[in-house]
Amino acid sequence: MDPIIVVLSVLAVILLVVYKIRKYFSLWKDMGAPYEKPHIFYGNLKGVGTTESVIGRLQNIYEKHKDNAPFVGIFVFFKPAALIIDLDLVKSIMIKDFNYFHDRGSYFNEKDDPLSAHMFNIYGAKWRMLRTKLSPTFTSGKMKYMFPMLVEVSKRLGEKIHELSEVGDEIDIKQLMARYTTDVIGTVAFGIDCNSLKEQDNTFHEMGLKIFDKPRHSFPMQLLLLSFREWALKLGIKRFHDEIHSFFMNVVRSTVDYRISEKVRRNDFMDILIEMFQSAGENKLTFDELAAQAFVFFAAGFETSSSLLQFCLYELACHPEIQRKARDHIEEVLSKHKGEFTYEAMLDMKYIDQVLNETLRMYPPLAILFRETDRDYKVPGTNYFFKKGTLAVISAYAIQRDERIFPNPEEFNPENFSEENMRNRPSVAHLPFGDGPRNCIGARFGMMQARVGLVAALRSYQYDLSPKLERPLKISPINFITTIVGGVWLKVKQIK
């Protein structure tokens, strides 16, 4: 064959491919919708996960368009997505039109990586069944039952703070709170005394850190899994390290075997999972399915509550007057309850709730929320459509730092969550646990865990900024969870 013809044929194929890609990426432009111009290979996320966090990138896009668009058309690599700005549209997606957006669009691999097929990720009927069956675990009655277990762990937290303050006056709060949440969830979910507050080299604690700080894949690769789920499944790509999989499978197996053989009942999350595992009906779980739900309970509680507590103590160290007010409020409430830290006393600590909610506003643990439309969706009040498979991207971080919603959003101000201020805002303006039918099932437990930990940390200790702390805080670019690079070093002083 003539070499010239070969060269021209190759060039023609390349030009055709480039044309097709450019045509594909012109989706939002052709629709006349507001959009960000995508890169031909990376979509709108070039550099994310290496030089910049996805949280920062989406906040920049949000700020650029927030005054003139209900959403912005973007691409997550090759997957069409819409960054949602208008709060009414947020509410439609998460609540009113949930029947269009009932799945998150997450990647999971039930066959090769069963721990990834947990309730946060899974789709459709199986998700609905699990949500319905597990919701009773998180009622106020169950929270009251679990409360004494959390208080016992919080006492060990107080002892650890005392021990560390005797050695030196600086503590890495990030590591300390990760150990506290490890011990809480080990006790509540598995009935196991993890003892990570006492043991420096603790496997439970190390595995928790590895899930988030050392993921199996780079962040760009995690985004590619969102874009090419079917291909990734065919290739058998896993989400988690084999070491994590083996460890949690063994822990769950030993817990289940012990409870069944010894007829142990603790009226908790694991009991409900075991009932479903042993049932013969349509709600029956396989062991892999049971293990996946136990795993996500640990993973979600470990990272979200520990990050909430570390950011909270950091902000209280930055604002000593708020720290004093929070501490005085704790003592005032306890005095009304005969000095006892009861479940009812915790519920009366309204200012502590304000402090924690303001922390969640500034540092939402899950800063980016995803919903995927299962069919074409007409955006209310517009002529725009989200085609089937479009990813609705909601940046809780950007919304919660929007000065139109929260005045002086970079300033830590618990009064943002006074009863009056909360009444004057749409509920979807504050999304640390999502909203609608697919909100975080364990939000109530997570808040209780944080309240108990904060009371233990604040009652007898004062926190100030340490010279070892790098400021401003740098958000880690390697995952969707709001964590910072390095430790959160604070000076701690016992209050006589």
Written overview of the protein:
Its cofactor is heme. Belongs to the cytochrome P450 family. Heme binds at residue 440. It comes from Hermetia illucens (Black soldier fly). 51% of the residues lie in helices and 8% in strands. The chain is of the alpha+beta class and 496 residues long. The protein folds into two domains: 1-26; 32-494, Cytochrome p450 (Orthogonal Bundle).
Helical fraction equals 40-55%
C-alpha termini separation: 91 Å
CATH class of the largest domain: Mainly Alpha
Number of helices: 19
Tell me about the largest β-sheet.
Answer: 4 strands, mixed
**What is the alpha-carbon Rg in Å?**
24 Å
Mean pLDDT: 91
The amount of beta strand, in percent, is 5-15%
Given the helix and strand composition, which structural class is it?
alpha+beta
Q: Largest beta sheet: what is the strand line-up?
A: 1-2-7-4
CATH topology of the largest domain, by name, is Cytochrome p450
Secondary-structure element order, N to C: HHHEEHHHEHHHHHHHHHHEEEEHHHEE
In total, the number of domains comes to: 2
CATH superfamily of the largest domain: Cytochrome P450
Shape: globular
Which spans have pLDDT < 50 for at least 5 consecutive residues?
none
User: If classified by CATH, what would the architecture of the largest domain be?
Assistant: Orthogonal Bundle
Number of DSSP-assigned strands:
9
